[in-house]
């Protein structure tokens, strides 16, 4: 009897152990499969929220953000604007071009043009000016139907205090703000934390996530991080209608008295900016844009393919030192720049190269007339 009882006990124990093992195995299998599924979902979510590269967004925007120089009967002022269609039309603020006797537009590549007024608002602080030479140039990307919310990241591009294509980064800090300044009404505008000061007015507000223009930077409070931008969706219908209603033959140019070749100091500043933009284009691998900055003789000497080959194998490029000299006899500017280059074959060891640029006017546009570079020996 005792033997039977012992056998039954042993058999039951074995059954319990085997059953427990099967249950534990099933639980472990289910838990493992759920964990893999969750990880997969997280990875998928992360991929969908990737933002565009900040440097690329800024570089692409800067191509079509312009500095606007305005002469009135009593003063000179500076503002900003951006090319928004392929007809050469530029959006800016009405207060930037108000009472203008001359309007000059300077592009990111230092090319300078006279602009005509298409139309400007009476109550809305918006205006459209046109540069026929910019017809068929690719404009900025407009997000006319997008409405940003508090906390969304933005980029403001403009020419504060005359420093062209400066960038401020911030967030939408308020929405649906309404107020008046002088004769203009600002209704349901964005409040932003990006710094806006004199010269920023008319520049674009850009969505950090998409690179699209979502507003027109219009006003700021001095010595604060409070500024305001008109949502592009509030005015896009107006500016589109204005552009369609005025042909090139009907354009009226303000009386021009400004001579773009007359100021050596300004020419040096523009030349410095041109060379800075040249190197920025190389760094972002925009070789076409850099090539367009060369004068016609340089482009004849060096085709685009050879030009591209001379830079395409650079891993990094940093300007370390620069000297600018105005050449009065030739009305040109010489810029000598030391550049640290890491080449793909250099095992990450930087090489110092000295670039000597001669910048001058060609068909009333600043261009790189001469370019020489040499390696600096240790």
In short:
The protein is of the alpha+beta class and 378 residues long. 28% of the residues lie in helices and 35% in strands.
Notes on the protein architecture:
The chain has 378 residues and is α+β, with helices and mostly antiparallel strands. It has a domain at 264-375: Nuclear Transport Factor 2, Chain: A, CATH 3.10.450. The chain has helices spanning 2-48, 54-62, 94-97, 236-245, 264-283, 287-291, 296-301, 304-309; strands spanning 65-71, 76-83, 89-92, 102-106, 112-114, 116-120, 127-130, 153-158, 166-181, 184-192, 204-207, 213-220, 227-231, 314-327, 332-343, 351-362, 365-375. It has a 7-stranded antiparallel beta sheet with strand order 5-4-1-2-3-7-6. A 6-stranded antiparallel beta barrel has the order 8-9-10-13-12-11. Strands 14-15-16-17 form a 4-stranded antiparallel beta sheet. The longest helix is centred in the N-terminal third of the chain and has 47 residues, at 2-48. The model is unreliable at 31-50 (pLDDT under 50).
Helices and strands in order, then pairings?
Layout: H1 2-48, H2 54-62, E1 65-71, E2 76-83, E3 89-92, H3 94-97, E4 102-106, E5 112-114, E6 116-120, E7 127-130, E8 153-158, E9 166-181, E10 184-192, E11 204-207, E12 213-220, E13 227-231, H4 236-245, H5 264-283, H6 287-291, H7 296-301, H8 304-309, E14 314-327, E15 332-343, E16 351-362, E17 365-375
Antiparallel strand pairs: 1-2, 1-4, 2-3, 3-7, 4-5, 6-7, 8-9, 8-11, 9-10, 10-13, 11-12, 12-13, 14-15, 15-16, 16-17
